[in-house]
Amino acid sequence: MTDEPSGFPYAPAPESTAIVNISSSYGIFIDGAFVEPADAPRFKTINPATEEVLSEVCQAGAPEVAAAVAAARRAHDEVWSAMSGAERGKYVYRLARLLQERARELAVLESMDNGKPIRESRDVDLPLAAAHFFYHAGWADKLDHAGLGRDPRSLGVAAQIIPWNFPLLMLAWKVAPALATGNTVVLKPAETTPLTALAFAELCQQADLPPGVVNIVTGDGRTGQLLAECEGVDKVAFTGSTEVGKQIQRSLAGTRRRLTLELGGKAANIIFDDAPLDEAVEGIVNGIYFNQGHVCCAGSRLLVQESIVEDLLVRLRRRLQTLRVGDPLDKNTDVGAINSAAQLERIVALAESGDAEGAQRWSAPCTLPDRGFWFPPTIFTSVSTAHRIAREEIFGPVLSVLTFRTPDEAVEKANNTPYGLSAGIWTEKGSRILWMASRLRAGVVWANTFNQFDPASPFGGYGESGFGREGGRAGLAAYLQEASS
Amino acid sequence: MEEGNKRRLAVRKTFKLYIGGAFPRSESGRTYQVLDAHGGFIANVAKASRKDARDAVLSARTGHRSWSAATAYNRGQVLYRVAEMMEGRRAQFAAEVARAEGCGTTDAERITDTAIDRWVWYAGWADKLAQVIGTANPVAGPFFNFSVPEPTGVVVLVAPDDSSLLGLVSTIAPAIVSGNACVAIASQTRPIPAVTLAEVLATSDLPAGVVNILTGDPAEMMPSLAAHGDVNALDLAGIGDVELAARLERDAAGTVKRVRRPQPDANWYRTPSLAAMSDLLEIKTVWHPQGI
């Protein structure tokens, strides 16, 4: 780490990995037990900060997926949907408590497999994952109040495909509402981050969850496709790229399977001239450099009112110089490792398109580790709305800065995207916040804050950011049908 | 429509499209014959082209801007006004439904009355949706956090082919009550009540473009509408061909549209479910810190 503006060096503060016990290989979790498919290929999952192999997992194929869906079907029809909501809820509460009890271990495991700073896995991912189970557990016996009429019914077997950016938290967003509403699940974690999902399988065993209620199959996109297209599935919930989301929507056309999609984004974070600038700078940093920018709702397009852009950029660059990039397990680290070589390649390529199209690149001065996948916090200025870095999701620590003069122009530029997941507004004027919030085509609007999440607060996008919501009462609709229908 | 007495020849109507508040013929100049339930000739009706459909989307986008900016109270009053206007033409609607659907007078009147009452039912929803679907969210932190429904934008809907009036009203009203604008493709074989409904809508203070009604062949128009980049959602209620429905759903995935699947067995008499409206809504969540 170089160029510490404060001048005070930080001593290393590594979190111990002794608490984590990783098996050298994992099977898949079907019907309450880990099974070793006889002839399924295996692949390695690595620590992206060191490139060390952590474990080997299965590439589940059609027979494994079919077995998982059949187990989920049996569990749904014979046990889970027949159980009273109150009893079901108690199982979900157990899972919440188990996540809390083993939070430290799971946080370390998450940072090892994903590359995110321990500060974030410890303070954000794990507490929120437990909170999602706790929140939804309480719904299980109150579904008459979900707004879907009396006695709404579960859909059946939910196929859930989740991304690598918040592995355990995305699991919680998917599994908790599904279980609380009486569905059973087959979950496929991302191929680069399967370990916390497999650890969650152990939690299901510790909770004595009836076999088949939660099944976990590992693999890459091929496994996901097999799962989404499996006949026995009643509902598909996918979080990931817009490209894959479109493929899944196509593959479900003409079937009776229901679908919710939480896809990409290119959020505008809009700074007005009356905004509290130091707070806005913190919000910008949290918006785009949180989790290495591997966040679908990241504030990747900064829209700054023209009169303050110079002042703001000076403050922003100064702040970026204090970000500590490096070992995810160091408790002082702000920005960890890029999740995979493939993702790093995408980030590098898009950043190079920014250079080629005439934008000005500035990266925070920092020494990147020799091994692993890293990208420094980066800002592009002189960006036009036509540039690829202003249109395409980079999913990395890269901010594109654009300017505007009037609120109308800010709205027009912010909405000038096929996406519509989130947006940020920074101004001291309340009426302007509400005026802006009603005009932005985005599912989540953060005013004078950014990247806040809560299980009680619905999350999801407009347009090509998907459909359906997760969290809150609105999120229950994704897993229930009206009794009369 | 037909000769009222022996001395006077009736003035027949030209059946046209309804786009952007106006009643144009199809730009293609095409028409098709509409027959009654017994095979008798009723009229030559405009056969909308893909170009007409694109024009209708453009009008709907314009209509959506003003309509979604209107207050919920105002939208509720306009929908109620539609019911008032329909009531004034109750006899005409009943006669057209009877002839189109081949049902008796009693059934046709029941269909018409239910369709009128459905507008009243939806009118009342305009300023209650946000209270029933929206939420104040008790998040674990010092934030004011709420979620509100918003219209998804432009909805293309294919009205049921059998239920020429009640089915049409039951697909248009839930789409527009929240502030969406729509392009409605009327029953292909029974389009006459839809054209009369367009005349009602044109005199109900509904801003131009909020509802556009096309007559013609859904199979011809829908593929380009399903892939249209400025359409936000599809309601395939009246698509009977399962292959076509699957193809439209696939095409809709190119822009991640919301899709309501076909409803071949829908009972349009039944009080609709909330999903008829909520499937065409977005939920927007807004966060703001609390502090001094």
What attributes characterize this protein structure?
heterodimer, A: alpha/beta, Aldehyde Dehydrogenase, Chain A, domain 1, Aldehyde Dehydrogenase, Chain A, domain 2, 6-stranded mixed sheet, 37% helix, B: 292 residues, alpha/beta, 10 helices, 10 strands
Provide structural commentary.
The complex is a heterodimer of chains A (485) and B (292). In chain A, 37% of the residues lie in helices and 16% in strands. Chain A has 15 helices and 19 strands. A 7-stranded mixed β-sheet of chain A has the order 13-14-15-12-11-16-17, with helices on both faces. Chain A has a 6-stranded mixed β-sheet with strand order 8-7-6-9-10-18, with helices on both faces. Chain A has a two-stranded antiparallel sheet with strand order 1-2. In chain A, β3 (42-46) and β4 form a beta hairpin. Chain B has one domain (31-289): 3-Layer(aba) Sandwich (Aldehyde Dehydrogenase, Chain A, domain 1), CATH 3.40.605.10. Chain B has 10 helices and 10 strands. Chain B has a 5-stranded parallel β-sheet with strand order 7-6-5-8-9, with helices on both faces. Chain B has a 3-stranded antiparallel β-sheet with strand order 3-4-10. In chain B, α2 (72-88) runs antiparallel to α4, α3 (90-101) crosses α4 and α8 (218-226) runs parallel beside α9 (242-252). The interface between A and B is large, with 47 and 39 residues. β17 of chain A pairs parallel with β10 of chain B.
